[in-house]
Amino acid sequence: MKRDNLPWRAVQPATLYWNESGVPVSDTFDDVYYSQENGLEESRHVFLKGNDLPQRWHNHPRRHFCIGELGFGTGLNFLLTWQAWRELPESRPDLHYFSIEKHPLTHADLASALTAWPALALLAKPLLDAYPGLLAGQHRVLLDDGRVRLDLWWEDAAETLRNLADRQQQLVDAWYLDGFAPSHNATMWTAPLLQAAAALSRPGASLATFTVAGQVRRNLIDAGFQVEKVAGYGRKRECLRGRLEKLQTPAANSHISPWDIPARTSDRPQNVLVVGGGLAGCHAAAALARRGVAVTLLEQGALATAGSGNDQGILYTRLSRKHSALVDFALQSFQFASTFYREMLQAGTLIAHLEGDLCGSFQQSDNATDMATLGEALVGLEELAQVLDASRASDILGINQPSAGYWYPRSGWLRPGAVCRNLVTSSNIHVMEHCGEVTLCADGEQWQAVAGGHILAQATCAIAATGTGAKAMSQLQWLPLQTIRGQITRLPATHTFNGLRTALCHDGYIAPARQGKHSIGATFDISGNDPTPCVGDHRENLARLADAIPVWREALESLDPATLEGRVGFRCASPDYLPVVGPAPDVSRFLDDFAPLRKNARKVVATQGSFLPGLYVSTAHGSRGLTSTPIAAELLASMICSEPLPFSRALCRALAPARFIIRDLACNRM
Ligand SMILES: Cc1cc2nc3c(=O)[nH]c(=O)nc-3n(C[C@H](O)[C@H](O)[C@H](O)COP(=O)(O)OP(=O)(O)OC[C@H]3O[C@@H](n4cnc5c(N)ncnc54)[C@H](O)[C@@H]3O)c2cc1C
Ligand SMILES: C[S@@+](CC[C@H](N)C(=O)[O-])C[C@H]1O[C@@H](n2cnc3c(N)ncnc32)[C@H](O)[C@@H]1O
Q: Quick one: which of 521, 524, 526, 562 has its CA closest to 542?
């Protein structure tokens, strides 16, 4: 859904009540979420059996099996499917479950609804733990070590399917058509919607639904499905199943130039090279390894010693009164990252308090108008963020501070180096440190990683996750990247400071103490290139902290900055502050193909993008790499493995490296 510039707010939740049989009923659509009699068995019969599941999983020819659902509702269908998947032997394909829902249940309603199914309680808990609540947009949930990917898109089904079909990828193996009854909700069964579903289907895709309404059958047949009525469950006479007979090609969206759609697609690779061992590279390697891809990770020095080398980093996000790609990305990536790191901490993969602590973070603000507006917009999203006055914030922080602001309960701090090292422990990842500067050279269909005149590794696919080093790579020199020097200061955790219980962000930040030191900082210097810490920057960090927490001023001013430890790092940022994630374009082909934009920026050039085969980028994570790199890795891994992507097409275009070429052409700068 196009949200840019609309007021930022939560999605409209489902309004429902429980009828006398304890079944949830939608107020808006006046229909039940599942069957009155035996919802569990009926859903199993209609949707799983209707799609020949789990039988089809036994000999599935691909690494993953994708189910598309219209109407996530209470998640019953998903839990039943996940349960059936779990009961299969290990050789099963990964489960990719993609569900579109316009009015998600609140967390509380979902929890109540799922208490009806004790047999699913074991699975309901992790679903509830990772449920994104009412945050608008697209959410990826990883379950069972990432073998199950649940994509929850809080969007309108018709619009979303149309946009997805425009990407011209056939992704879905089986459909669960579960909008309310067509007589109550005709919008979920229209001919264009079902045509878009057909266009997204793989050859031979199946579908199942509870309705046998004549108009639905006709629309499905027109869309290319062959359908049949089969016996319903219990007293229900019939339900419907079908199979795609004729592959559909969607009518291309004539409103935008399809530069983001690759003119050539490649097969899922066996091996991938990842160059760069910071947060971006390590997350990318882990995301591929979760999918069974063998990864060689090549780092010029040691892992996590460049941008990702700080002691402590804050898990940031940002709010705004208006939607934009920047804010939607900041929030959706934060939702994913905070769940991801929480699981690492809960599993003991990261050692709590030593390697991270999701103790929450507070962002001071002096903008009362924004806080008033956002305070209202955040109703129903309290797990994401809350507006607090100074006194309530001070209580939570454990210190006396003067500002109101935003409290993010799921944020906190992490030690990037520990995150990186723990991400690459999979046996699918071969880590090569101290390689020296690696260049990527194309040799036929292969990318060769070359350093010191030697070929260190090769593969058909490579990811450049080289942070500020991207500018030195011949294929990426054209990217408009900026290097920003930053220095943090290690503040000894004396009794004055160590009451701090959560992270505090102002112009800079302070994290709760780790091994007797707080990280404070960081400076932001667009022209500096000195890698050694300087006293002036320590002084600046102390002064900014004193402004933020005046009761500490005296203690901070009594410190001698020359005696303090610190560290310098270099952030890599893009001009629009979004990271650069996606396939590397063939710049000269782009310049030729999209040249008409120079004369008319609004012209729709009906040409697909040409990309350097198999080369991908993840960089420009700016000051928020802890937040942005986990979902960036999922995005790249999904692209590389031909899976549904975790973001809308609009957001993928906003992150794509090629966006800069298109913008420059449109401004006649290239
Ligand atoms: C002072 C400071 C404070 C920060 N605070 C926070 C914070 O609180 N929260 C937060 O989320 N983020 C913070 N950041 C930003 C965060 O650290 C970055 O966004 C993140 O580290 C980016 O990760 P990366 O993997 O893209 O880059 P890097 O960590 O820089 O990794 C790139 C890696 O690629 C390697 N490399 C480069 N070129 C080559 C080559 N040709 N061959 C082989 N290897 C190569 C480099 O050696 C490096 O290890 C801060 C950054 C700084 C500088
Ligand atoms: C019958 S319920 C789905 C039940 C669900 N599959 C389950 O397992 O609980 C139908 C769902 O479709 C959703 N819905 C209705 N219209 C929609 C639309 N236009 N786009 C997306 N979802 C829609 C409703 O909010 C509701 O959650």
A: 521
